[in-house]
Amino acid sequence: MSYTKLAVRGAATVFIISIIAAFLGYLVRLVLAKNLAVEEFGLFYSVFAFLSMLSIFKTFGFDTALARFIPEFLHHKKTSYIKSSIIYAAAVQLITNIVIIIAIYSASSYLASNFFHNPKADFVLKLMAIAFFIESFLLVVKFSFQGFKRMTLFAGIDIVRMVVVLSTILIGFELSYGLASPVMAYIIAPIILTFVFGLILIKKVFPKFLKSELIFSKNLFKRIFRYGIFVMAAGAGTLIFGYTDIMVLTYFSGLTAVALYSVALPTTKILIYFPRAIVAILVPLTSELWAKKKKEILREGMELLYKYLFIVMLPLALVMFSFADIIINVLFGKNYIPASGAMKILSVGMIFAAINGICSNFFSGIGKPQIASKIIYSGAIFNLVSNLVVIPIFGIIGAAMTTTLSYGIMMLMGLLDINKFITVRFPIMIWIKTLTAGLIFTIVIWLLKKVLVLNVWVETALVLAAAGTSYIALLFLLRVIGISELRNLYMRIAK
User: Fold this and answer.
1) Which among 267, 260, 325 has a CA at the least distance from the CA of 41?
2) Which of 133, 140, 135 is nearest to 66 (CA)?
3) Residue 457 pLDDT > 60, yes or no?
4) Which of 13, 140, 305, 413 is most buried when burial is the number of CB atoms within 10 A of its CB?
5) Residue 99, class by beta-carbon neighbours within 10 Å (0-12 exposed, 13-18 middle, 19+ buried)?
């Protein structure tokens, strides 16, 4: 089997398992929203975001470095180096996490009063800090699996983790533990998983662990540290971008606003699950085409991605925009309907996010991940500064606007940087025609929602069927797509 087929198969496996884990994670969010007060829901995810920000410093990239160095040491049959690397990663995380926990325990009361503005934040912070401490060791196990190319185990940890979390939460709510239910779930899950998967690692995947010599090598530690620091720096941008809006909302707008935003953003992110399927195979394919200097094929592929990703993402975003109230009400209940305004804005942002995801993985595929890091840091800085200005005035609407604009800026930077390596012709006219079809698609939805007075489910189905038919018909009429093009595309994919 060729490298490409192996890489694509592995990437596809990880993608499928990741989607299942993401679904379970979203299901956890639904359960919490149904069983906690709005402010308690906001408090939990605010603390979660706060600790996720601190996780920048808890690993120093040592866990991720295992995925980089274990294959090298396996190739050279240096089993003692593998064992030592795993021990180094665990030891570093033990030290950094102890420092972080001491800091949190010392400041939790102050943070509860002056940042979170809720006394319950004190015990939630302390307990969730323990959860994040334990989970850091699970990450050592997880990335060790990646290093050994045991991708099913690597990705499967996330599924098992969310199953244990969800089960524990449901039991906790059944016993009327309230807010303590998710907190305890996030402590129990990593304890169980670290023990179980740790045993699998040392008994099945790397049975030489116990017999191998532990080497205290200064040079080995330096190699891992240097790589880990680079990874940590690259990952910091993602964490800053992902959680600063929650932090700023917590301080300026309160926990209810956090709760609403913690419903709107994850729901709109469902839209980018489709492009993630493309991303799963983009990196290995791009890597091989770039290595073989087949730039023309790569250029054609990117142009097709730009075209068809927009064709698919636009109506999905417009559906979420048009039915935001209904989606929020059905999934989370009427208390969360005020989140629909932010959701409408964010649905547009997800189009930009999807295209940016393609760009980022292109840079990874050609061996230029630093460009993707530059872009994410630019987006993170813009998002942080904008949030500090806009959120105090507009609340969650301001957070949604800054997130959408940040995705847009990152997308533009990515598109421009790609052209430094391959000359891609942006399908401007295709995008304009697609937008025209999307506009009419939205008008059809709006008119039918005004005219039809039926059961909500029947009405929604009829509206989507009519609007979807009009959109597809317009794509053909405006010559955005054609039968022969689709046939040729199918044949190329099949080949």
Assistant:
1) 260
2) 140
3) yes
4) 140
5) exposed
Distance, CA of 185 to CA of 33 (rounded, Å): 16
**What is the Cα–Cα distance from 153 to 141, expressed in whole angstroms?**
10
Where among 204, 231, 249 does a domain terminate? Answer: 249
Q: Are residues 266 and 276 in the same domain?
A: yes
The arithmetic mean of pLDDT across residues 244-260, rounded, is: 95
**Domain stops at, among 205, 225, 249:** 249
- Among 162, 160, 152, residue whose Cα is nearest residue 13: 152
Distance of CA 354 to the CA centre of its chain: 12
361-378 mean pLDDT: 82
Task: Give the integer Cα–Cα distance in Å for 428 and 180.
Answer: 52
For residue 221, CA distances in Å to 72, 226, 371 come to 15, 9, 27
The answer to which of 23-32, 75-84, 87-96 has the lowest mean pLDDT is 75-84
Which of 208-222, 281-295, 422-436 is the least confident region? 281-295
Same-domain pairing of 213 and 263: no
> H or E element: which one contains 317?
helix 295-322
pLDDT for position 493: 60
* pLDDT-wise least confident of 70-74, 198-202, 406-410: 70-74
The residue segments making up the domain with residue 214 are 1-249
Residues 458 and 415 grouped into a single domain = no
Query: Is the Cβ–Cβ distance between 52 and 221 less than 8 Å?
Result: no
Helix axis angle for 38-54 and 218-252, nearest 10°, is: 150
Q: Which amino acid is at 56?
A: I
Please, what is the angle between helix 218-252 and helix 62-75, to 10°? Answer: 150
* Cβ pair 237, 315 in contact under 8 A: no
Q: How far apart are CA 104 and CA 100, in angstroms?
A: 6
**The two three-digit tokens of residue 112, written as one number:** 């509860």
Quote the pLDDT of residue 12: 65
433 in Cβ contact with 313 (< 8 Å): no
- Look up residue 83 and give its two tokens: 């064992």
> Rounded mean pLDDT of the chain?
87
Cβ contact 359:417 at 8 Å: yes
Least confident of 97-111, 361-375, 453-467: 361-375
Evaluate whether 266 touches 342 at the Cβ level (below 8 Å): no
Of the ranges 55-69, 129-143, 243-257, which one carries the lowest mean pLDDT score?
Answer: 55-69
